[in-house]
Amino acid sequence: MGVILSVDPDRFAQVVEAARRVGLTVTGEQRILGSLSGTIAEDRIPVLAAVDGVESVDREQIVRLPPPPDSPIQ
To answer: Fewer CB atoms < 10 Å away: N or C end of the chain?
Structure first.
């Protein structure tokens, strides 16, 4: 399951390491923003959310828009 985390930016490196230890595979780090993305088994999300320094865990969502009807451009 893809997730996006908000973390304490002052402890970014420590939080990333702790998240990895509970099973997060990190796919992106945005240190300045205090966020990171990754994948983890869905049943491990509560454990990930409990990591000290993790402020929130949001499941990744994919939004697909249908093509516009009768559009000459598409």
So the answer is: C
